[in-house]
C-alpha cells in the first residue's frame, strides 16, 4: 500500500467530527506537534475499523495555508497513510501551501511529496508572524527548523 493514492477498505478517510477533537489534542501534545489553531473542522482523519489512527490539518492564513498537525499512530506508519493525508489536504488547499518541519528526517519525507525548502524571508507575511518564535529559536539556540512550500507538479 506504500505511496498508494487509494486506501484499503479497512480504512476510512473523513472530515473530523467534534467528538474527535480531544483525542486529536491529546495526540498533538503527546507527539509535540504545533497546538495552535486547533479548529476541528480543518482536520482530515483516517480511521482503521472505526479507530482514529491518523490525521492532518489545513490551517488558513491571509494569502497562505499551512499543513499542520500531521500525525500517524506508530503502529500504522510506513503504510502510506501520511502520504494519503497530504495528497487530500493539498486537494483541499486553495492558496499557496506551506509547512514547518522540526525534525530532520521529515524534510526528505515532505520533499518526496512535492514540497521544497524555502527561507523564512520567502514566507508570506501571515506565516512569518506565525513562525516568528520558531525562527527565533533557530537563530538563538540553533534549533532545527525548515520551512517548506508545496510545488505543484
From TrEMBL:
Top-level division of the source organism's lineage: Bacteria
Organism: Nostoc parmelioides FACHB-3921
Domain N-acetyltransferase, first and last residues per copy: 11-153
Name of the protein this chain belongs to: GNAT family N-acetyltransferase
Any matching Pfam family: Acetyltransf_1
InterPro entries registered for this protein in UniProt: Acyl_CoA_acyltransferase (IPR016181), GNAT_dom (IPR000182)
SUPFAM superfamilies, A to Z: Acyl-CoA N-acyltransferases (Nat) (SSF55729)
